Amino acid sequence: MKACVAGASGGIGQPLSLLLKACPLIDELALYDVVNTPGVAADLSHISTPAIVTGYLPKDDGMKQAFAGCDIVVIPAGIPRKPGMTRDDLFKINAGIVRDLIKGVAESCPKAYILIISNPVNSTVPIAAEVLKQAGVFDPKKLFGVTTLDVVRAETFVAGITGEKSPSKTTIPVIGGHSGETIVPLFSQAKPSVNIPAEKLDALVNRVQFGGDEVVKAKDGAGSATLSMAYAGFRFAEKVIKAAKGEKGIVEPSYVYLPGVSGGDSIHKTTGCDFFSVPIELGPSGAEKAIDVVSSANEHEKKLLEACYSGLKGNITKGVEFVANGPKYVPAPQHRL
Ligand SMILES: NC(=O)C1=CN([C@@H]2O[C@H](COP(=O)(O)OP(=O)(O)OC[C@H]3O[C@@H](n4cnc5c(N)ncnc54)[C@H](O)[C@@H]3O)[C@@H](O)[C@H]2O)C=CC1
Ligand SMILES: O=C([O-])CC(=O)C(=O)O
């Protein structure tokens, strides 16, 4: 199992790479970034776990070498928010970064599971899908927008109300997209069920939807969530890897291309959104089944979902148009599959 982190020298990239290095399921860990990867790789390589760590920079075809033969690529490359910015404000810079990294994936490891962390996730995942389509290698079951931090926050904030001592033991579907009102936690479908006093529900939903802003504000210009994101990114990557190795019954929400995943069509019909985060059953082929938790949402959650759909559709269209209006990507002959 070869994993690559693209954006490995950053605030998320470094702790995420540490967690991947500590994971015994990984044999090779390639670190790619435009700066500092030789140092980060040298540092991690002294840890006495099986994974062989290598670091690459853009020079000497570094991206190609980092991605070659990868089974899983995790992408936290790009700029983070500062106070006063929305995730969509990051589009201008991060859209091009993700597009170019995905071109590299299409050429060097088109069969890899691709996990996108770079914001705005609502748009960067559609960008990735369009680039992969142009290259003729799009497998919707293997492209994931990482929304696990929203799930992790929901688990944590609910435990703050219920007093649950092991927050991650409660499964809470958080669906939709990954920004503000497009994030919709479905507390009515928590397992085991949770009792949230009515007067606390709105504040709880709002805290999950705007948890990212809480961190951006507290960091006061020094970036956004990095450590909790590394934890969440690793949690999702580890589940994808375990499912790839044949473990059954693994389910975690992720932002996927609904029409391309089994069970996604009916959710697509209800939501009208091509990309949407729902609980996904993972398996060796990737996203094996999208689980419909939308139609069983309660009335309060349905109102939240209405607000989610319109914002999310705009974000998706923006990503798709970015690739459609950009230079058409023609893969080199040797990479046409
Ligand atoms: N999906 C989610 O839940 C979350 C997403 N994020 C997003 O993750 C991204 C990264 O955040 P941080 O790690 O805090 O930022 P950072 O600025 O600390 O790190 C980003 C890294 O990307 C690298 N980079 C820039 N262009 C690159 C390229 N073309 N190829 C390879 N690497 C490149 C930079 O050199 C830097 O090391 C941001 O867009 C942020 O908004 C952050 C938290 C949660
Ligand atoms: O808020 C941000 O910009 C980073 C992020 O996506 C999160 O923490 O959920």
UniProtKB/TrEMBL annotation:
**Binding positions (substrate):** R81, R87, N119, R153
Q: Name one GO cellular component term.
A: cytosol
Domain spans labelled Lactate/malate dehydrogenase C-terminal: 147-323
Q: Which GO terms describe its molecular function?
A: L-malate dehydrogenase (NAD+) activity
Specify which residues bind NAD(+) according to the UniProt entry for this protein.
G7, A8, S9, G10, G11, I12, G13, D33, N94, I117, S118, N119, M229
Going by the UniProt record, its keywords in alphabetical order are:
NAD, Oxidoreductase, Tricarboxylic acid cycle
- Could you say which EC number(s) this protein's record lists? 1.1.1.37
Record flagged with keyword Oxidoreductase: yes
Q: Which Pfam families match?
A: Ldh_1_C (PF02866), Ldh_1_N (PF00056)
The record places domain Lactate/malate dehydrogenase N-terminal at 2-145
Query: Which terms does the UniProt entry file under GO BP?
Result: malate metabolic process; tricarboxylic acid cycle
Q: How does it assemble?
A: Homodimer.
Tell me its family: Belongs to the LDH/MDH superfamily. MDH type 1 family.
Official protein name in the record? Malate dehydrogenase
